[in-house]
Write a structure and sequence with these properties.
Layout: H1 16-38, H2 42-62
Length: 69
């Protein structure tokens, strides 16, 4: 969905229910990734957490609603 006048070219959920579902899906995905990491030996867990940290940091940096310092 775009804003009137063609502004806001990003895609947005059509309804609030869609946003809540997207949030729940992201939460479930994160929990799943954490379970996989926790099941690994200690050395592999460190690499798994580092990879997860990098992915989450990239998402935060890409979020246009995050204020820049």
């Amino acid at each position: 969905m775009t804003l009137p006048g063609g502004r806001g070219r990003g895609t947005y959920p059509e309804r609030m229910d869609d946003a809540a579902t997207d949030h729940e899906d992201a939460k479930a995905d994160l929990l799943s990734r954490l379970e996989v990491i926790e099941a690994q030996p200690l050395a592999a867990r460190a690499a798994g957490y580092e990879s997860l940290h990098d992915a989450l940091a990239r998402r935060l940096e890409a979020d246009p609603s995050t204020p820049r310092r």
